Amino acid sequence: MERAKLQEFIQNKEQWAVLIPGYLHHEFPNGQNMIWVFQGDFGIIQKAVKVELKGKESNPNQVMFDLVGLSDPINGDGYFEITQNQDGTCQLAGNLTMKASGFLAGMMNPILEKVVPQLVEKLVQEMAVKASI
Prior knowledge:
Blueprint: H1 3-11, H2 13-17, E1 23-27, E2 33-42, E3 45-55, E4 62-69, E5 74-84, E6 90-100, H3 105-131
Antiparallel strand pairs: 1-2, 2-3, 3-4, 4-5, 5-6
């Protein structure tokens, strides 16, 4: 995949915000931050989850952010980055950690630990497809 295309894509949060599974909507309170609302499926509970992605220091090959739960006490961090394979091709990788606190933490954290890596893998695949169009 072409590095310049991927760089442009990951830096434009508007393009990949809509790809999260369960996406409902997003908004930009300022240039660095984004509020992301998606339908979370937490086993027996399905609910809209609202989080703020607070942009951290990034570079053209990497977007890093902290997550702050606005609707629920869920916080975490994550990144998307472009890596180069030995054959010179580029690929997109991502990581996201989310931890619940408070009243529902005991029930939510085992679900988050199971669901979040699958969600990120699906999101990164969607992002790679969309970036290559």
